[in-house]
Amino acid sequence: MQLNVQPGLLASDKAAEAEAIVGACVHCGFCTSTCPTYLQNGDELDSPRGRIYLIKEMLASGSAGPTTQQHLDRCLTCRNCETTCPSGVQYHDLLAIGRETVDALVPNRRRKIKRALVRTLLLARRPLAWATGLARSLSGLLPVATQRLLGPAPLFADAFEQRTGARVLIQAGCVQPHLRPDTDNALSHLLAQFGVAVEWVHGCCGALSAHTSAEQQARELARANLQQWRDAAARGDIVAIVSTASGCGLQLAEYEALLGQQLTAEDRELIGKVCDPVTVIAQLHAQQPDVLPDLANAEPIAFHCPCSLQHGLGLSDAVQRLLTDLGASLPTITDSHLCCGSAGSYSIFEPAMARSLRDQKLGHLQQSLPATLLTANIGCQMHLQGGTVTPVEHWLVWLARHTFLPIEE
């Protein structure tokens, strides 16, 4: 494809980027075979190729309508198409340009307010902490489905935090510490078993803002986190920077693309230390193989690999390899490459499509009748739990539970 962006529509660097991405697409259609929304409704405009056509037409003409906005909104940004694409088209970058442009060309006050409200509510740590705390105190009066979403009582106490010397930084996000506080604590206790210290960094990664066309807010959040990382690095060596939510981890890993020329050499060095917890745990396990337990007698499980982990970070089977190496038995999941429908805030803004994808995913995950479903992202965890009575746990919590509590034979 060839694109000539309408003069004055985009900044010159964005125009050049969009033209290069569109130019890389050979419209082969391989992406349609792995696009969840296209597989659901068969609408070409709900496929990556169709959306590229819509963005190309919009950027060339300088005009767009609600239909274009609707089809771009319906994209999960799961990046499955990028894994499939033989031409290496960076679709998610083009989609971000397309969404920002269509939002400027097609003002939608109600939509804008709804997205701003969701961002405000999820980024407000104190009200969120208060609300979840109140809900837990009244859990006995709440519907069973709501109780499942709140999750069980935390198993692990807050771990000791070390603010000097060599350590791993854990980026505590905006939602997970309140909805599933055990997850970060599970990681910290596992790392302690290997003799690795941790320090918490608090602040939203910016993914929610980036995915709802609030890129300026996403950049501000990124800069605030980088300042915390620099402050931490000044007190001692940072071994790795991790988030236990793979969606947040992907956002952190892409700070260089987000901030570009604003970054210092120190910033780039720190961003280079961002990785998923499974990478850290797997490396430590390879060095100290006797620390983690034998999981051969653990209860049956099934693992859902989030899109951010497999397509974004390129770790499609890292968790499975680690757990299998420890003796756990994991079934092969049908269409494991497809999205569960959570996709960050997608399940809030596109609930019908999200539920359909969730029900399909749960059907595949539960074929082997697992006692527990595992995943690696808080959004996937909450979304899946909303559709099943089977407990959905973060793999780190499950591993920590079997490390520190005996397995019932």
Automatic annotation (TrEMBL):
SUPFAM superfamilies: alpha-helical ferredoxin (SSF46548). Its cofactor is [4Fe-4S] cluster. Binds 2 [4Fe-4S] clusters. It catalyses: glycolate + A = glyoxylate + AH2; (R)-lactate + A = pyruvate + AH2. It is an enzyme of class 1 (oxidoreductase). Keywords: 4Fe-4S, Electron transport, Iron, Iron-sulfur, Metal-binding, Repeat, Transport. Gene3D superfamilies: Alpha-helical ferredoxin. Pfam families: CCG (PF02754), Fer4_8 (PF13183). Its EC number is 1.1.99.14. Transmembrane segments: none annotated. InterPro entries: 4Fe4S_Fe-S-bd, 4Fe4S_Fe_S_CS, Cys_rich_dom, Glc_ox_4Fe-4S, Helical_ferredxn. One of its GO terms (molecular function) is 4 iron, 4 sulfur cluster binding. Residues 16-44, 66-95 form the 4Fe-4S ferredoxin-type domain. Component of a complex that catalyzes the oxidation of glycolate to glyoxylate. This is Glycolate oxidase iron-sulfur subunit. It comes from Simiduia agarivorans (strain DSM 21679 / JCM 13881 / BCRC 17597 / SA1). The gene is glcF.
